[in-house]
Structure formats: structure tokens, C-alpha cells
Design brief:
It is a single chain. The chain is α+β, with helices and mostly antiparallel strands and 507 residues long. It has five domains: 127 residues; 51 residues, SH3 type barrels (Roll), CATH 2.30.30; 81 residues, 2-Layer Sandwich (Alpha-Beta Plaits); 127 residues, Jelly Rolls (Sandwich); 52 residues. It is 53% helix and 18% strand. Strands 4-3-2-1-5 form a five-stranded antiparallel beta sheet. Strands 9-16-11-14 form a four-stranded antiparallel beta sheet. The longest helix is centred in the N-terminal third of the chain and has 32 residues. The N and C termini lie far apart (125 Å).
Length: 507
């Protein structure tokens, strides 16, 4: 018998045409419509082993060698196992994902492994192979192997349990002992966890099943977010209630990325020492991977909130200052601060018409009010009778109509905003949010009252500047002529002057 005749005969007996046809169909369908990424490596291995043994069996058969009897059964086994691999690929990569059933890889491996063993036993039994002696011998071998590999078997069983009950899923942030990180894969032997330090820690599954595993930020029926604590100390010169109110109001109003709106951040007094109180901001982090950068933004918000309230962070009681704070030194520092504020007033159009003495008076009453990124500097609809003078930094102006919140302008220092609230008492017309750290001063009604009361003509100057500023924008938008713009500016000046005089009780 020729080789090709033997090959054809052996191929028919071992169902090789069916194996090749089913394998080809599986490959085409998986490439075309598979939802999950198919695993072809095992399939190609079994089909390749089947074809290799088929060629060897045909060669032995054509040569009349008795080795053909030895290779024929393995050929049939690999052919049958290839069909199981094809079916598993179609089931787990095409069919189940289409009905939105995604099975863990370890479960797939167990099911396919059991199916392959059962198929191999069935094929060998039909081929007349006596398996009773093999089973009896393997029982003793299995017991010895199980005893020596109990840790490995425990890891496998642990991995299977983790996958089956879905207690820990890929993407979960967990803490096991001193390891904190994101679960990226649950394998047979270990669970792979990626830490924030760009490390991958392989935790044996026996450790996962025997230890307390904390799943961070996970609560039934709630969004994934983790409570964080940011600590700070303030000395007893300031009442605890005032400290809590100042910081809590600032943090809640700030638009800090990754800080949850619900539950709201809160501030608590957590401990008391002889010289200062220990406080903490408690907030919920929405992206667990970005913990330290978000903590940093919250700390900046705390710092600037305390600065605006003239509260200082506590220093150690044993701190020593070797610089003598004389009256001359204080005077120099005060003069430098006043010069800085006068310079800012001189650069702003609203105050250029004032006399130097008047600007100096306003400078003495300007209050330092810095803001951190994301903090709300003023909110639409609020009654706040003061003006903000931005020395350096940028902010976004947003307006809400009750349904939509849109950006209408960008502010960049040196500039000012809130002039209508200061001069006429009207509510804030927009919300202003700091884009970064903003060096800013606040000027309130009491300071402006002194200047206007001393020289009432200042009210007219301020009204004229504001009217011209407003009409200039309107002229550009509406295409007003120069005469029309002047007439409108005159009307706006009179209207504003009337409101200013009424607000400051000049009539």
C-alpha cells in the first residue's frame, strides 16, 4: 500500500476531514464575529499534533510496521480533543459573549480541561485500550503528587473560588497586608496587583483566600469612591467652630476634580494638644488611582481658606525666631505691602481717576484673599458687597440659567470683578472659579464708603468708568455709531450714579 493510500485510510478512520473543516470554520467565525478575543494557541497545538501523528501513522501503515498500532490511538485522541477545542472557542468567544455572559478564564480552562479528559478516555475506551490498570496505578501516584503539590493545588483552588464567586474582579482596588493596588488579573496560581509605584505584585491565591482582603471604595449600591483624610493643625487663638466653618465652606464650594459632591466633604476636630488643635478634612475620592495629587489640591484649598480668614497653621511650640521684630521692621513690611497694593490699584482703570491719597486709603483696607485652583471666588446670585482685585492668576466666569452652566469669559490678572456688587449692592451676576493659584485682594463697602463720603465726586467718576466700559462692549456687539455710544454712555452714567448714591446713602 502506498503512503497516500494509507494516509487517506487513516484520515477517514480518525475523522481528519471533520477536524479540519470544523477548525477552519471556527477560525473564520472567531475572526469575523467573536466578541471576546479567542485563544487559538491550544487549538492550533491539538490540530497540529493530530496531523503530525496522522502522517506518522500513515507512514508506519504503508511500511507495514506494528508502530502504526501504537500511534493510531493518540491520533484519534488528538483529533477528538481538537473538536472539543473548536467547540470551546465558539462557545466562550462567540456564543456566550453575544448573550452577555462572560465567563472567567480560569472557569473556561477547568470546563475545557474536564471535557478534554472525558473525551480522551471515551476515545481510548472505544479503541480497546484497557484503562483499569492505568487508573489503579495513577491513584497512588495522584495521592503522592497531591501531597507534594498541596500549596500549588491550594492556589489553583483559591483562584477558581475567586473567579467563580466574583468576590474580587479585575479593576478592583484592594489592600492585602501592606500591598495596595489594582487587580489586573486572577490566574491559576496568583492574583496580579498593580501598585501606584508602577509595580506588579503577584499574591498567591492561598493568601487571598486566607487573609483579610479590603476592596477599596466598593459599597453595595453606591458609586466607587474612597474616603480620604487630609490633616492640618491650627493653634488655639482661633475657635474650633470658626476653623471648621471656614475650611469646610471652602472645600465644599471648591470645584476640585475627583472630589465627590456626595457625600459632601466635612471637617472635624480630631485631637487636642496644649498649643493647637488637630483637624482633618474628610472627602470621598472618585478615582482611587489619583490619591496623593488630589490630597495636594485639598491641602492647597485648606491653606488659602485659612489665609483669607487670617488664620494661620500651627507651628511647633518650641520654634525659635532669632530675628527681632522691631517697630521699624514692622513699618518697613507694612509699607512694602501698601506699595504692592497701591501699584495694583494704579494699573486698574476703575481707580485711575482717584487721587493718590484716595488710592492709599483704599490700599490700607484691602484684604489679602488668595484662592487655590478650583475654588469658587464668587457665586452667581450671592449678596456680597465687595470687589475682588486680581493681582496675578487666571479665573473662569460662568453663568447659569437654572438648567445649563456655560463659560462666558476668562479673567487674567491684573483685573477686577464684582464692581457692581460693591458700588450698587446688586447680587453677583456670575460665578467665578479660579483656574490655578490666584493672588487676589478684597475691597469691601466700608473702605469705599470712606473715600466717597470724603469726596462725593468719586461716585460720578466711578459711574462714568463703569458706564463707558459697559457701552464699549455693547457698541462692538450692536455696531453703534460714536454719537449713539456717547448718548448711551451718558444715560448709563446717570443711571449708575443714581444707584451708587442710593447704595452709599449720599442723597
Amino acid at each position: 500500500m502506498s503512503f497516500f493510500e494509507a494516509l487517506g485510510q487513516e484520515a477517514v478512520q480518525s475523522y481528519t476531514p471533520w477536524v479540519l473543516a470544523v477548525a477552519a470554520i471556527t477560525f473564520v467565525l472567531s475572526k469575523a464575529i467573536a466578541v471576546d478575543k479567542p485563544r487559538f494557541k491550544a487549538l492550533f497545538f491539538f490540530v497540529g499534533a493530530h496531523l503530525t501523528l496522522l502522517v506518522a501513522t500513515a507512514g508506519f501503515h504503508a511500511a507495514g510496521s506494528t508502530l502504526a498500532e501504537l500511534t493510531r490511538s493518540p491520533t484519534w485522541v488528538f483529533g477528538a480533543v481538537s473538536l472539543v477545542a473548536c467547540g470551546a472557542t465558539l462557545l466562550f468567544s462567540v456564543i456566550l459573549p453575544r448573550v452577555r455572559l462572560h465567563t472567567p478564564l480560569i472557569v473556561q480552562d477547568v470546563v475545557v480541561g474536564i471535557a478534554m479528559v472525558a473525551t480522551a478516555v471515551a476515545v481510548l475506551s472505544r479503541a480497546g485500550v484497557n484503562l483499569s490498570g492505568l487508573i489503579a496505578t495513577s491513584a497512588v501516584f495522584t495521592a503522592m503528587l497531591g501531597f507534594s503539590l498541596q500549596d500549588v493545588i491550594g492556589n489553583i483552588a483559591g483562584g477558581l473560588a475567586l473567579q467563580v464567586d466574583n468576590s474580587i474582579e479585575e479593576g478592583d482596588w484592594i489592600r492585602v497586608g501592606d500591598v495596595t493596588g489594582k487587580v489586573v488579573e486572577v490566574r491559576w496560581r496568583h492574583t496580579a496587583v498593580e501598585t501606584r509605584n508602577w509595580e506588579t505584585v503577584l499574591i498567591p491565591n492561598t493568601v487571598m483566600t486566607k487573609s483579610n482582603v479590603f476592596i477599596l471604595g466598593k459599597r453595595r449600591g453606591q458609586p466607587r469612591q474612597l474616603r480620604r483624610w487630609v490633616y492640618f493643625n491650627v493653634d488655639w487663638r482661633f475657635q474650633p467652630g470658626d476653623v471648621v466653618n471656614v475650611v469646610q465652606t471652602a472645600v465644599r464650594a471648591a470645584q476640585i476634580e475627583r472630589v465627590a459632591r456626595e457625600p459632601q466633604p466635612n471637617v472635624v476636630l480630631i485631637d487636642m494638644t496644649e498649643t493647637f488643635g488637630k483637624y482633618a478634612v474628610r472627602y470621598y475620592l472618585t478615582d482611587i488611582a489619583v490619591d496623593d495629587p488630589t490630597d495636594s489640591e485639598v491641602r492647597a484649598c485648606v491653606y488659602f481658606a485659612l489665609q483669607r480668614a487670617d488664620m494661620t497653621l500651627a507651628m511647633p511650640a518650641h520654634a525659635l525666631f532669632v530675628t527681632e521684630e522691631t517697630s521699624d521692621r514692622k513699618a518697613i513690611k507694612t509699607e512694602k505691602q501698601l506699595a504692592r497694593r497701591r501699584q495694583l490699584l494704579e494699573t486698574l482703570e476703575l481707580f485711575k481717576g482717584l487721587a493718590a491719597e484716595e488710592r492709599n486709603e483704599l490700599a490700607r483696607h484691602m484684604k489679602y484673599a488668595p484662592f487655590a485652583r478650583g475654588e469658587v471666588m464668587t457665586r452667581q446670585g450671592a449678596d456680597a458687597h465687595w470687589l475682588y482685585l486680581v493681582e496675578d492668576g487666571e479665573a473662569t466666569v460662568r453663568v447659569s440659567d437654572g438648567l445649563n452652566d456655560r463659560e462666558v469669559a476668562q479673567l487674567k490678572g491684573p483685573c477686577f470683578f464684582g464692581e457692581m456688587s460693591l458700588l450698587t449692592g446688586e447680587s453677583r451676576s456670575a460665578t467665578v472659579v479660579a483656574n490655578g493659584e490666584v493672588e487676589c485682594f478684597r475691597l469691601d463697602k466700608a473702605a469705599m464708603q470712606k473715600v466717597i463720603a470724603a469726596r462725593p465726586e468719586v461716585a460720578e467718576q466711578l459711574a462714568r468708568v463703569l458706564a463707558e466700559r459697559k457701552v464699549t462692549l455693547q457698541a462692538v456687539k450692536e455696531g453703534l455709531s460714536a454719537d449713539a455710544a456717547r448718548e448711551r454712555a451718558a444715560r448709563e452714567t446717570n443711571a449708575l450714579l443714581s444707584r451708587i448714591r442710593s447704595f452709599f446713602a449720599l442723597d
